[in-house]
Amino acid sequence: MSLLVTKDLMKWFGETHAVDHVNFTVKESEVLALIGSNGAGKTTLVNLISGLLRPDGGQILFRNQDVTRQSVHGRIKAGIARSFQLVNLFDQLTALDNVALTIFSRGGKTANLVTLAAGDSAVWDEGHEILRLFGLETKARMLAGGISQGERKLLDVAVAYALRPKLLFLDEPTSGVSTREKAPIMDTVTSVVRSTGISAAIIEHDMDVVFNYSDRIVAMHQGAILADGTPDEIRRNETVTTTLIGTTEAR
Amino acid sequence: MSAPALALRQTGSSARPLRVAVPVAVLLALVPLVLPPYGAILLAYGLVMAIGALGFNLLLGYTGLLSFGHSAYFGVGAYAVALMVKYLKVTSMELFLVGAVAASVLITALFGVVCVRYTRIFFGILTLALSQVLWSLAFKFFWVTGGTDGLRVPTPSLFGGLVTGAGDKTAFMSHAYYYYVLIMFCLCVALMWVIVNSPFGMALQAIRDNETRAEFVGVRIWRYRWVAFMVSGVFTGLAGALWVPLNGLTTPDIMHWTFSGEIVFMSVLGGFRSFAGPIVGAIVFNYLKTYAVGYTVYWQLLLGAVLVALVLSLPTGIVGTAGKLAARFQRRD
Description:
The complex is a heterodimer of chains A (251) and B (333). Chain A has 251 residues and is an alpha/beta fold. Chain A has one domain (2-245): P-loop containing nucleotide triphosphate hydrolases (Rossmann fold, 3-Layer(aba) Sandwich), CATH 3.40.50.300. Chain A is built from 9 helices and 11 strands. In chain A, β5 and β6 form a beta hairpin. Chain B is mostly helical. In chain B, strands 1-2 form a two-stranded antiparallel sheet. Chain B has helices at residues 3-11, 15-34, 37-63, 70-88, 93-115, 120-140, 142-145, 169-174, 176-196, 199-209, 211-216, 221-247, 257-270, 277-295, 299-313, 317-332, and strands at 151-152, 249-250. Chain B has one domain. The interface between A and B is large, with 47 and 37 residues.
């Protein structure tokens, strides 16, 4: 069953059709990979769905509700969360504070200015639990700006996950980290996603990551969807392999 | 250690700040008993300015917005009191405070709607421009505000009329009014401590650090900045209301942008990255300015030179530098 559907979604930047009549779906409880060369429109598509950009046309349906004109806040309430290509954290807060703030926000508690945050043990307990799930428990008291790039990538996902979304967009969760760190990061992320039954759409350039961790792959090229299928189907798709992977040899 | 206990240690339990705050409050309470009246009155000015700087720093230190217009809210508090005296014949300090808070809420709510849509230099210029509008109103509408002559404010009655200023004004200001200011100072510090350590305070720091991400964890940026702007302005307005009986007179000078610059300087001097920085900065600045004025007619030159030297030698402010030194000594031990 489809969790998210876009219908003829469009975004133009001047003469450039960054997203051109895209019909894109994410199903319940799947890990989907969104691939494509630089400028293919992957991040723009995620920006449109998450509310960072306004579409020039088309429709976004999330759980059969039209969210096309909803604010970022409305989409978060509906269950859409995202991480960013460049790690986007609150660097002067601790790792635990980063997650706890998100939990406070999810519960509508950030409007409270006359109660000490430290007194809400349920939030801090959940914060510790989320950090434990992402293997960051030992970094809880460190400033987010002071941990390693791989840990920052995981914390970035943990912060988005703390919103308890139904659909999580991850924009290049392994970019900027060493090859050795990629597999542990993806193991952790996909393990959390699969164990909680949420859907994840991952933008990724590393084809090993894409083929090893996704249930379905959507390939984009020049603002449009080039192919959509299982990893095996995409491997055998000659258009994809010649256009995106650069070889006709199946990987 | 259990998770909540750990969290309490990280986000600031109330035990450690109290260990610092209680002895400081006791020392401040002893001041009128050990210092001559002038010393106590001078410190009262410092405490009043500390309330204003504390409010200002909610925007600069915690929300990342540099206001060059806080003289306006200080002036709103002071003029609200003066106008209550002039038109309503009010003498109760408590009513003064209620009036000043109401006026500050009104003005900061209106100014905030305009200013918090912008950040960085645009925010700073807007706050400066709006404060200059209020300054020119206070300057030109002399039949209401007294123009450059200002408005006089007599000695108020305190605690619902239980303490009055009849008799020696200096003795009243250096004792009864000093303690009144000290109580208000302690209440404001406690309230601001709760605010910056509340979930709301965390959200402000998140906005300061990363506005885009804050929006994507569900923080309503505009609304939170607006509330912070109002809270900040109300604290500064309250400072203005406490300042005017001490001074006995309010003039448009306190609404001029140069006074906003002094409030900025107090926070930078003390260290805007720490909670106590603006408090220490305001008190130190008040002493520096008072003694510079008494020392030479070229006091602005002297004060400027001293302040430049202090900022260059203590880039993280007095409190920030003290914290670094303390940490260094702890590591040695």
